[in-house]
Design brief:
3-stranded mixed beta sheet; 3 helices; 6 strands; globular
Length: 135
């Protein structure tokens, strides 16, 4: 079984309200103050963004490999958090796709992309995960 390691460095900033995540030459500012929506993406929102980013990437790759044209792709991701114990218990994602290809072809690449999305595959093991697409 082939594996790949990912490494991300994080440092809580001196202001105490944000954390900077760094990988290669990129950085992402995250909110680090619990309950403060003005501090930026909180960790749960970052998890949802990772899920949306992963299905977007997977759709692009599968579409390209399948010769399916995608002119536009948006993803809306919603997570439900429970308080005790604190965790995300479900994620729902909805893709809006602009493409001249048939619904059948788009549905086909959507199914393959879902199976090949690293983050979605990981989440599927731990919570309810639902997704669909439309034009």
């Amino acid at each position: 079984m082939a594996t790949q390691e990912y490494h991300v460095d994080l440092k809580r900033n001196e202001n105490g309200t944000t954390t900077t995540a760094s990988v290669r030459s990129f950085s992402l500012e995250l909110g680090a103050k619990s309950g403060d929506p003005s501090a930026g993406f909180n960790p749960a929102e970052t998890l949802l963004a990772a899920a949306g980013g992963c299905i977007t990437s997977s759709m692009g790759l599968v579409a390209s490999n399948s010769g399916v044209q995608i002119d536009g792709l948006k993803v809306k991701v919603t997570g439900v958090r429970q308080d005790s114990p604190p965790k995300i218990i479900s994620v729902h994602y909805e893709l809006t796709i602009d493409s001249p290809d048939t619904d059948r072809r788009i549905d086909s690449i959507f199914k393959v992309a879902r199976r090949n999305s690293t983050v979605l595959s990981t989440l599927r093991e731990t919570m309810e995960l639902k997704g669909e697409w439309h034009r």
